[in-house]
Amino acid sequence: MRRSVKTGMEPGTPVYVGIQRHEAVRIDAMVYDCETCESYVDVPLERLEGLKSHEGVLWLNVIGIHDVDLVRSVGEIFGIHPLTIEDIVNTSQRPKGEDYPGYLFCVMNMLTYDDVARELDLEHLSIVAGRTYVISFQEKEGDVFDAVRSRLSQGKSRLRQMGADHCLYALMDAIIDGYFLAIEKIGDGIESCEDDVFEHSDSVDLAVIHQYKREVIAFRKSVWPLREAISFLEKSDTPIISGDTRMYLRDLYDHTIQVIDMLEGYRDILGGIHDTYLSLSSNRMNEIMKVLTIIATVFIPMTFVAGVYGMNFEEMPELHWRYGYGICWVVMIAIGVSLVVYFRRKRWI
Amino acid sequence: MRRSVKTGMEPGTPVYVGIQRHEAVRIDAMVYDCETCESYVDVPLERLEGLKSHEGVLWLNVIGIHDVDLVRSVGEIFGIHPLTIEDIVNTSQRPKGEDYPGYLFCVMNMLTYDDVARELDLEHLSIVAGRTYVISFQEKEGDVFDAVRSRLSQGKSRLRQMGADHCLYALMDAIIDGYFLAIEKIGDGIESCEDDVFEHSDSVDLAVIHQYKREVIAFRKSVWPLREAISFLEKSDTPIISGDTRMYLRDLYDHTIQVIDMLEGYRDILGGIHDTYLSLSSNRMNEIMKVLTIIATVFIPMTFVAGVYGMNFEEMPELHWRYGYGICWVVMIAIGVSLVVYFRRKRWI
Amino acid sequence: MRRSVKTGMEPGTPVYVGIQRHEAVRIDAMVYDCETCESYVDVPLERLEGLKSHEGVLWLNVIGIHDVDLVRSVGEIFGIHPLTIEDIVNTSQRPKGEDYPGYLFCVMNMLTYDDVARELDLEHLSIVAGRTYVISFQEKEGDVFDAVRSRLSQGKSRLRQMGADHCLYALMDAIIDGYFLAIEKIGDGIESCEDDVFEHSDSVDLAVIHQYKREVIAFRKSVWPLREAISFLEKSDTPIISGDTRMYLRDLYDHTIQVIDMLEGYRDILGGIHDTYLSLSSNRMNEIMKVLTIIATVFIPMTFVAGVYGMNFEEMPELHWRYGYGICWVVMIAIGVSLVVYFRRKRWI
Amino acid sequence: MRRSVKTGMEPGTPVYVGIQRHEAVRIDAMVYDCETCESYVDVPLERLEGLKSHEGVLWLNVIGIHDVDLVRSVGEIFGIHPLTIEDIVNTSQRPKGEDYPGYLFCVMNMLTYDDVARELDLEHLSIVAGRTYVISFQEKEGDVFDAVRSRLSQGKSRLRQMGADHCLYALMDAIIDGYFLAIEKIGDGIESCEDDVFEHSDSVDLAVIHQYKREVIAFRKSVWPLREAISFLEKSDTPIISGDTRMYLRDLYDHTIQVIDMLEGYRDILGGIHDTYLSLSSNRMNEIMKVLTIIATVFIPMTFVAGVYGMNFEEMPELHWRYGYGICWVVMIAIGVSLVVYFRRKRWI
Amino acid sequence: MRRSVKTGMEPGTPVYVGIQRHEAVRIDAMVYDCETCESYVDVPLERLEGLKSHEGVLWLNVIGIHDVDLVRSVGEIFGIHPLTIEDIVNTSQRPKGEDYPGYLFCVMNMLTYDDVARELDLEHLSIVAGRTYVISFQEKEGDVFDAVRSRLSQGKSRLRQMGADHCLYALMDAIIDGYFLAIEKIGDGIESCEDDVFEHSDSVDLAVIHQYKREVIAFRKSVWPLREAISFLEKSDTPIISGDTRMYLRDLYDHTIQVIDMLEGYRDILGGIHDTYLSLSSNRMNEIMKVLTIIATVFIPMTFVAGVYGMNFEEMPELHWRYGYGICWVVMIAIGVSLVVYFRRKRWI
Predict the structure, then answer these.
(1) For position A183, what pLDDT does the model report?
(2) Which of residues 160-219 of E touch A (CB under 8 A)?
(3) CB-based contact (8 Å) between B338 and chain A?
């Protein structure tokens, strides 16, 4: 569904805007503190109240946001503002960071590069972080959080020692680590494209270059606003984020800048490839045309001479000369050779 | 009429600048509070004073601004500054938000995409919002406010519970929702254009690409200043806007940014289409010229040979050879074949 | 004269830099307050002192700035700083607004579009505004202030009720109204250019497009710094400008932005026209070359066949076949037709 | 010598970086106050102490900075920081303004246009301005300060009445006046280039356009940072610069902006010339190719017909027709004429 | 190894990201104050504690960061934050300056131009500067610090008199001096490229231009963020940096700006070379095609005439004219000459 289905609805009405899905929506949960860590799969709605009042940090992962009612129910349990709910289910929402009373809200795109389809896969992901809980909402099964999960289940990891704000940070960090993976894959493609151009420009497909350009633009559209969002979280004076986590967010900001730098670099390279491709293919074309035209040009005057002595005038003295034919050949060859010499002197061939 | 008709007039003189219209101007009104909602069509000027002093929120919708006297009369009743009146009837006014004593003033463009004429339709719309009233001025019959009207007539909607500032917000939100509709239609056209380019570049019309470019530019010209206007309303310290509505305005600002993002994206894509179109059509042209030139080049030396033996010299020994004619064919074919082989080796064909 | 004539002179030395003129310089004056308005033509220098000490507001209009001594004399009477005098007579001075002790100083360009010569006419105009007087300096006879004069002579106009700051505003407003007139004329030309390109690109003259580009650039160079100048006047804390006039200056600022918007729009369109012109004319050229080359290519192999049977070998069995000639025609036509079919299949024709 | 010779040296080590020179270095001095003005040529180092303690303002002009030891000695006498000395002798230093304890430091480029070599001549110039002295360091004999010198020797000039800060200003003003001279010469060249392009594009040399582009870029590189430097001097709270001189510096800043404006204008024009040159020369080329190809295309089918009736088949009935030859001519001319008509209808010729 | 190997690791986990190396890691140290300077090579880890508590300034140079454990151990001894350690071993980290409790952290790229491979060599370098120590971490043997070392071993150098902050500055200065060397080598290449283009455009290789473009971009990517980093160090209120060193840092900032200026200049020049190369090579191509086409065009009508009189019609009166053959030559030559004259008049040849 597209953004326009929302036209005319009351602002704050949550409407799922994205690919139609029919899978059941699932809620996973992890509750942890320094000492224990419990993990739950497919938690029913009714148990959420209990988990919420639990000691320690709660990380709720909602998989599937097409079930708007469920998202709204979760939102009501944790006191989330309707405008936030609206943004959570609106998959076309651009990345942003916002400060609501009682919680922080962060929208990101989870980017993975699909090796088979050779295209960038973009998944809308929202994170709500309160004092003691973090709720992540993702579109579908499959994410980049496995490393976070395994760190949580290990007793000694720093993550376990710290609060919900560090969990928020860890999730964001995992997503941005995923960006590096995706960008490196795109970068490999672009660089092999570049080599192709300089080696044998025929095999390069303009559609492929155009496709990479669009991917870099799409990537940039996800990362650029994220930069502001992270900077907002780092600099906001919310008590939810502790001083130590702020330092980690600064590091994250740094990574985002690095991603943007890489993207800019690839954009420059793609622009260069396109220009060079055009120059090279026009050069090759010119080269061909030149050679062909020279062949034609050399033979046309010679053919003219042959045409002259093919005329049927009664009085054509040359035809009766003894060495007429030989002389004619000499003349023709002389014309051809002198043209070739002339072209060579002009450095045309 | 054009902007220049105002030359020489006293500043603050309201002059209608736009397409000449002759329809009668109409004023519709809705008066509502939590409990009741009354709707009036074609309210005569004399009744406005009464409606103004009514309890609850008053939304006045003036349809048609070419009757400058009527607009001025309305303005006088509500104490609107002459400069505001001037901007209301000046259809070439760019979007802006301003803070006048006693009311807020906001100029927007209502954008709809006309499917039949395949062009963007732009209507000048001004909103004046006081403490207890909102007045919208539109150019002609037909708007995007039907959803607002139906929400107003339903008792339970949030809109009914809140003040004039929320009504202002609701109207602006309806207009920006309309932007998404318009932009999606333009986007569909652009994307089908893109597919055309890569599939069979002949059928693409440069005039169409140029037309889309102009529409995206026109769209951008409407949305870009609107961004500042909304930001101004959100951040101004006017008592007319309540804290809760401010949060909704922040959301609206977000939508505007999203529209701008989409427009930038389409601009990039259009640029890419244009470049690719040029590259592809020049590639195809080159391909054609190359093949044609090769055919010519192969036959020209062969024709020369034929020309030579068409000469009428008395002494041409080859003509009397037994297999002269056969050898001649062999020579000609050899020349042709070796040229083809040479071209193929050079990877020209 | 050019700017460089000033090289080596004491800074603050007023030097007229512009087209050499010989007309006599004239000073016109209007003195007005709510009740009376007197108008003087060609006021001699000696009377200025008297006018200055007059009650009410004095508007002095100096026509002709090539008489540097006269300008300096006027300046001395009103206590104008030498640097201001220098800027007044320096016609290459860019627009700016400055705050000197006792007066405001504003440089603008008066732009009119000369329909006959089809070029933008730029006149340097400076305004000095004190508490009770406004002095405008223009290069030559003829200006856009007639409407201001007629409003001044009408007793009821707002202008008459207000101080010198409003007179300054009225003059600036008149000039910017003139911008709209000029820009609309340029815009008409550009749009007819655009239509020409898409209809029959032959008749478009690149020099015309280049000329429009230069005019838009020149226009922009006049308006862009003016924007800052007006903003400076609006925001400066000088007591010369009253709060009410500030609101009008904000409106003026708005108009300037609108002019800039229109100019940017025309610049985009001109860029688009240039690109499209190039694309279209290259398309048309390619089309022509293609058709011509195809004709040549079809006939060259046929001519080769004809050449073969024009050879004079003794033994050419085909020549003696009964239907040799007919078969030859069939072969030639077959070659031609099959080439045409092949080209058509490749969608080249 | 190049900047890299400094690699590995202690920071603050003064190293002359520029063209190797062997002329003797000279110090000229002027000491003045309202009443007297003394001028000295080739002042020996030992006398500097005396001049420094003199009443009035001292302007020291050091001609030649390749004698690093001398510059350092001067610096030590006036208490100049080693980093300043380093910048004085580093000819590749970009323009800047800095505030050191006890003096202001300003680096500029003196630009003159060499009419003979037709290139921009750039000379590194540094000015150190203390409370009672100004020291200018220039690379070689010959400068733009003659007007300053003559004003100093005239008793009534404003310069004589004022302090060292005004002398600093006067020197900077003289340099910027020189910019106008240089830029007008470049501008003349560019404009004659522009006329050439539109009149007869053959005579335009791309290398010349490229050369102008480089000069405009080099010019810009000198002026752009100067703008910041002057703004820094104007706004710094140093007691060395008096309020009155600040007003003059504002005027200077204005001139710098004007230079930048002119440069931007020329850059736009050069870009336009390049584009137009390419368009026009491609248009002309296309025009030529079209005419030539049309001639070829018209004759090729005619030649084919002639070729057919040059064949030697025994049975060619047309050869024996009475009016065969005439008919053949008619056919050939008909083919040629109809092709020409067709091309004309298509508006190709 | 690539950045993506870090995916899923705990943030702050140091992972070496760069070319795999196997050399042993070495730590060199210099301890100095005004009076003494001791130099140690290959200091074992255990001795670091002792050196740290030494009087005077300690400069530790760690050569090789692929031994992550060693780097971590050094970090622990000096109390360096895990995030800093992570950045030290992450060779893809972009330049930055950061303020950690107790020390300053600075990442730079050491750039050298490899004359043999003709490419820019980029080495990741991090500096940690505390109150009494400076630790630099470099990737491999070989650096630009030899001049710093020799200055340290000389008793009288300014460096010896000052604290750790000046040592930090000296290292950064050495690196930026290295930039000038590298940039001048690139610049030489670019300028010889430029000369090639204007002299004989054939020998220019687009791949070389592309390669220079990439190097300038890579260079810029290293210097641009460095500018911010130095500005951060200069402006931060850390007590580690003394007022005097701040003045030197300002000078360093200046150098960085100069490097950026040079890079921008080269970028402009490279753009210009590319454009000019394309224009010139297209001009030359056009020139060739024109001459060739003219030759063909002149001979085609002449050949047609010859073809006509090669026809075998029985009745061809011209064939029997006495001077038929001569007249035919005259006609053919007349056609050829008149075409040449026509072309010359049109100024095509």
Answers:
(1) 92
(2) 202, 206-207, 210, 213-214, 217
(3) no
Residue B58 in 3-state DSSP? strand
Structure tokens at E346: 């049109």
C278 and D280 in contact by Cβ < 8 A? no
- What is the 3-state composition of chain C as percent helix, strand, coil, each rounded to the nearest 5? 60, 15, 25
Query: Do residue A301 and residue E295 have CB atoms under 8 angstroms apart?
Result: yes
Chain C residues touching D268 at Cβ < 8 A: 217
Distance CA D175, CA B231 (A): 46
Considering only the beta carbons, identify the residue of C4, C98, C299 that sits closest to D304.
C299
Give the residue-averaged pLDDT of C76-94: 90
Q: Where are the alpha helices (DSSP H) in chain B?
A: 48-53, 68-78, 82-89, 146-153, 158-161, 164-199, 206-235, 243-308, 317-320, 324-345
- Sign (positive/negative) of CA torsion C118, C120, C123, C128? positive
Name the residue facing B4 among C180, C307, C346 (closest C-beta). C180
- pLDDT at position B200 is 67
Q: At what angle do helices C82-89 and C68-78 cross, to 10 degrees?
A: 140
Extract the runs of DSSP E, i.e. beta strands, from chain C. Answer: 26-32, 37-40, 57-63, 96-100, 103-114, 119-129, 133-138
Residue D154's contacts (CB-CB under 8 Å, 6 or more residues apart) are D160
- Residue where the block lists tokens 């710093």: E148
3-state DSSP of C15-45:
CCECCCCCCCCEEEEEEECCCCEEEECCCCH
Tell me how far apart the alpha carbons of residues D210 and E268 are, in angstroms, rounded to a whole number: 11
- Half-sphere exposure for C139 (CA within 13 Å, toward CB): 21
In angstroms, the CA C299 to CA E304 distance is 13
Q: What single-letter amino acid sits at A8? A: G
In eight-state DSSP terms, residue E17 is B
Instruction: Work out the average pLDDT over E15-26.
Output: 81
Report the residue from D146, D258, D313 with minimal CB separation from C319.
Answer: D313
What are the two backbone dihedrals, phi and then psi, of residue D216, each rounded to the nearest 5 degrees? Answer: -60, -40
Contact E309 A311 (CB under 8 A): yes
Q: Which residues pair with A125 in a beta bridge?
A: A108, A138
Q: Kind and range of the H or E element at D134?
A: strand D133-138
**Cα separation, B305 vs B294, whole angstroms:** 18
How close E320 comes to chain A (CA, Å)?
6
| pLDDT value for E161 | 86
In contact, E105 and E97? CB cutoff 8 Å: yes
- Residue holding tokens 């010139």? E280
Closest among B139, B14, B124 to B68, alpha carbons compared: B14
Q: How far apart are CA A2 and CA B109, in angstroms?
A: 23
- Yes or no: say if C95 and C69 are a contact pair by the CB < 8 Å rule: no
Chain-chain contact of A311 with B312 (C-beta, under 8 angstroms): yes
Contacts of B221 in chain C (CB under 8 A): 261, 265
Note which residues in 251-310 of chain B have CB less than 8 A from chain A: 251, 254, 257-258, 261, 265, 268-269, 272, 275-276, 279-280, 282-283, 286, 289-290, 293-294, 296-297, 300-301, 303-304, 307-308, 310
User: In this predicted complex, what is the ipTM?
Assistant: 0.76
Q: Report all structural domains of chain C as residue ranges with CATH numbers, in order of start.
A: 3-279 (3.30.460.20), 286-345 (1.20.58.340)
Residues 6 or more apart from A161 whose CB is under 8 A from it? A34
DSSP string, E111-134: EEEETTTTEEEEEEEEEEE-SSEE
pLDDT in tens, E90-110: 888 889 999 888 899 999 999
Contact criterion met (CB < 8 Å) for C312 and D313: no
Over the stretch C322-348, which tens digit does the pLDDT of each residue have? 888 889 999 999 999 999 999 888 887
